[in-house]
Amino acid sequence: QQCGQNMDKLALDSISVANQDAQQFDIPADTTVFFFYNPFDAGVLETVLHNILALERRAKETAVHPARYIIYVNPVHDAVFQNSPRLELVGSSRVSQPTHVYRIRA
Fold first, then answer.
1. Are 58 and 31 in contact (CB under 8 A)?
2. pLDDT tens-place string over residues 37-69
3. H-run or E-run covering 33
4. pLDDT attached to residue 23
5. Alpha helix locations (H) across the chain?
6. Please, what sign has the CA dihedral across residues 23, 38, 68, 83?
7. Measuring CA to CA, how many Å separate 37 from each of 63, 65, 97?
8. Angle, CA of 65, 69 and 74, to the nearest 5°
9. pLDDT at 42
């Protein structure tokens, strides 16, 4: 509820938030950025990454395959992403929290 109110205040119309089991979430085909602030244990994160990569595989079958990125703040389970040959680390920062940015390879 608070998240929705904050989004309204900031006029963030192009961002959506879902409050449900991330492993069961049906990712919209037009999603281009995934933001994670160390939300899950490694097992759940692996499942979510599998679902994101499946979205990219389905996109290859259509004419729609935009660049997709994963932003991972406080990357406690970063090995999940580092071990994926489908991801490329394209940036990192340590401004307030360690943050890694990955591009999903098409």
1. no
2. 988 999 999 999 999 999 877 776 776 667 899
3. strand 33-37
4. 93
5. 2-10, 42-60, 79-82
6. negative
7. 31, 25, 10
8. 160
9. 96
Structure tokens, 82? 């580092």
Across the beta sheet with 33-37, the strand order is: 33-37, 69-73, 99-104, 87-93
What pTM value is reported for the model?
Answer: 0.83
- Contact assessment for residue 39 and residue 10, using Cβ atoms and an 8 Å cutoff: no
Output helix, strand, coil percentages for the chain, rounded to the nearest 5: 30, 20, 50
Q: Are residues 106 and 60 in contact, defined by beta-carbon separation less than 8 angstroms?
A: yes
Rounded CA gap, 73 and 81, in Å?
12
